[in-house]
Structure formats: structure tokens, C-alpha cells
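Archive entry. Fields below.
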Amino acid sequence: MPKRFLFFPSLLLVAYLFSACAGNSPQKPAAQLPPPTRKIDPVTTGSVAGKIVLQGAPPAAKPIDMSAEPFCANRNTTPVLPQQVVTGDAGSLANVVVYVKDFPADYIVDPAPSMATLTQRGCMYDPHTIALRSGQTLEIKNDDQATHNILAMPSQNPKWNRSETPGAAPIEEAFAIPEMAIPLRCNVHPWMKSYVFVFSHPYYAVTGKDGQFELKNLPPGTYTIEAWQEKYGAQESTVTIGPKEKKPLNFAFSAASGVGN
Amino acid sequence: MAEAKSSTPSVPLSIHRFAFFLSCCVVLLLMAGALVTSNDAGLAVPDWPLSYGSLMPPMVGGIFYEHGHRMIATGVGILTIVLAILLARSEPRRWVRNLGWTALGLVIAQGVLGGLTVKFLLPPPISTAHATLAQLFFVTIVSITLFTSQWWQSDLQQLEDAGSPRLRALAAWTTVSIFCQLILGAAFRHAAFGILPHLIGAVVVFALVIFTGRTVRKRFGTVRDLRKWGILLQSFLGIQILLGLAAYWAVVQAIHAAQPTSVYVTLTVAHVLGGALTLMASVVLTLSCFRLIRRDATVSVAAGTPDSRAEGFRA
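PREDICTED_STRUCTURE:
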């Protein structure tokens, strides 16, 4: 075949691969915001608190098959269920991220805590869903005698994939750009899945098994509060908080409405 | 291609057998690659070319699939080097020697693409290119197997085809359509596209394969070498369509599963292999058409040479 016939397809292939690789670079924010100037008066702040419940019976879950890794199978003496839907008493729903969706960017907020910790224990992530501030260090520990890889696939921040052998020092990573529901997973143990939420402000909470949450120290104003659950999606509600007001807010997800039901 | 028409093979049969063995190894490699994707193990080993900094990491969980794939790929790479050298030493036909070096180039490129998928965290275009090049490499080795067969190198009576469209062209376009369909399938599997292009491709491939098979039967129904591959092509396509439907059902079922299920893994891997075998059948049929049917025929032949047999090439 004449070489000229090969030249252009080769050029196209190289350009295609180059563009594909370039596509992995993180997206930059559209524009730099001006630095925040508005101070929050601690005397007037209020809060939003409530409970998240699941209406209806939670879906029946099959135990995870960990036989692919002898350590994981032996480490868990009782069957381990997927963490997609975890409920407590009276339908209280765990692993729901509740946050202020539209917090004004011009408020000066408290600095982020130094670190948030995610632990790989029994070949599961603990906690299953974690929220932190942009720039805050995410420490990932390996308590297992098994090798894990941790693959983070954000869309706004850089993607990364790191391995962590037994006894290795914790991995430390940070996400510079606020982003919701970043999938984190282990490809060695494909049942290990987690979600990371990154916020520019401190007004977020992740529910435990009691389904309770509280967003404290909110300056008076009107806010959109969103509750996100891995299977049932997001719900939002608008609340207006007056000075020193404690506003109740509850969310109810329907067990019949989940994606995939 | 017309230079080798002696009844005595110009290349030792051992090379043909070696190429056949390599073809089987590539099928194994395709299966190993498909297992990596279906088990979501593509990034279980974050480094490349070593695995966790060593040649033999603990073969557990996803590492088993990813490193196993790398090991088989290394073996196939070595076997391809051997094949290229054997052809360079013993093969009198320059174009077959060049095809051996092309196969080597393809397997090297394939290894590099595999490394890029790891380094760039499975970007859909690179993963799709990796899956596509695998099929191209496979049919290259299959072609070498055919070209080194006793059948290809023996004196074969040339057939004429005055029908329209010519079977040579029809078979070639069928092969091209199957290859494009495999690209669309890989793109769907690696989340570059949705399912729709792959479904449209299936309709096109189905129509072309049926038309080609019918043309083979009508014009060359007594030519065993063409009829056999025509039947195989249609059979593989039928199985592949059923597997495709089943695999799609399994994909939908597995979307919210906690981990890849055995049904999902089995059906999707089988669908990938079915695609490879369909492409193989089409490539062999196309090459056989080019070998047996004259390019510029003027007289239509209702039935070809009844006794044209493939003795050297295993079906």
C-alpha cells in the first residue's frame, strides 16, 4: 500500500489519541471569583436540622461475594451487604449528604479542618460516603492485610489511581474544586465503592444510621437545601432562616422511586 | 498474491501450524482482555509496564484478571516475534513476510495502547482503540494462518463471477461493516457512545451477511471452501445476535449490582468473542473469494469447481 495512504490515517489516529489523553486534564473553573468579604455574625446565626427517612421497605440486598480475595472472605465472618441503602430504626436513612446548595460565595467561612479520613476495613470503605472541603486533605488508610487500589474519577478535579499495600502509609489527596458525588472505588475488589463530596463551605452533613443531620451556624437568609442519596437521587427544599432560628427540615425518600427499581 | 501458485507449499507446514496455534492464543488473549473489562479490573494494577512494581504481584481479585491479561499478552507478543522471524527466514513471498512484521508492529502498538489505558485511567477513546486493535491483530494472524496454508499455496482453479454485485466486493464490504460494528460495540462497552450506533450497525451487518451468504449459496453453492465459510459466517452472526441481546439484558441488570455478576461476565465476554469469530469468518471468506474468484470475469458461472477443498487451513 502506498505510504501516502497510511500517512493521513496515522495522523488522525495520533490526533485522536492526543485529544483523548488531553481530555483527562481537569477542568478549570470558568472564572475566578472575587475574594469573600462578608463576615458572618456568630450572634445571629441559626441552623437547619432534621431527619432523613426511607418510606417503604428497603430493597433486599444480596450479600457481597468476597471469595475472589481470601483475606476479605476470612476477615468478615458474617455476610456483608452492599452499602447502597443503609437504614436504621423507623426507616431512618444513612449515607445521605445534606448540604446548602446555594450558599453565597461572598461570605467569609471558617477554614477547613486539616483532614478527613476514609478507612479501608474488611475490604469495605468506612464511611461509605464522605464529605469534605475543597483543599482539605483526604487521608485514606488501609487497615486490611490486602492490597487495594483507590480510583477517583471526578469530572472537575484531576482523576487519580493509587495503590495501597498492607501496612503502607496512608494516602493523602485533596480536591481543589467543589464537586458532588465523586466516585471512588477499588478495582481489585469491585464491590468497594464510595462517594466523595467536596464543598466550598462548611454547611454540609452526612447522615448516620439515625438519619439525623444538622447544619449549624448558618447566617440568616433563604437557602436551598439538598439531600442526596446514592440510589434515590436528590431532593431539595427551600428554607428561610431568621436570626438565631432553628429550622426543622425533614426529607423522605420513597423506596419505590429508586433508580433501577 | 499471484506469485505462489505451485502445488508444493513454498513455506513449511510447521509455520502454518505455528500461526494456527498463535491464532488460538490470540482468542485466549481476547477472552482475557474481555474478562478484564467485564470484571471492572482495568485499573486494578495502577502501574505499567510492571505490576505493583514487580513481575508477579499477588494474583487476587481484579489483579488476577489485569495481570493475567498482561502475562498472556506478553506470551502472544513473544510468539508473534517468533512468527515474524520464522516468516522472514522461510517465507519466499515478500508480502507475507511483511504481514508478519505488520503483525509484530500491531502487537507492540497494542501493548502501548494497553499501557496508555492504565496511565490515562481508561479514557473511552483509548480503551476503544485498544479493543479495536485487538480485533485487527487477531484477523492479521488469522490471515497469515490462511496464507501459509497448503490450500492457499496450491494450484486452485479460478472461478468466474459475472453477477452483480461481485462476491469479492460484497464479502469485502461485509468484512468492513463487521469491523466497524466491532468498533461501535467497543465504543459502547467503554462508554464512548450509547447503544444506538451499535444497534444500527447490527442491522447493517445483518443485512450484508445475509446477502453475502445468499450470494455464496446461489453462485458458488458447490464450492466447498466458499460455502463452508459462508455458512460459518451466518452461524456466527446468528449466535452473536442472540448473545448481543442477552449481553445487553445482562448489562442493564448489572448497572446497580454491587459487583459484576457471573451472568454478566459470561455473556459480555462471549459477545466479545462472538464478534471476533464473526469477523474471522468474514475475513477468511473474503480472502478465499479473492483467492478463488477471478477479478475481471465476463462469464457467469452458476456452479463453481465442486472439488475445491481447503486441506491445509483448518476451519
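CURATOR_NOTE: Chain A has two helices and 17 strands.
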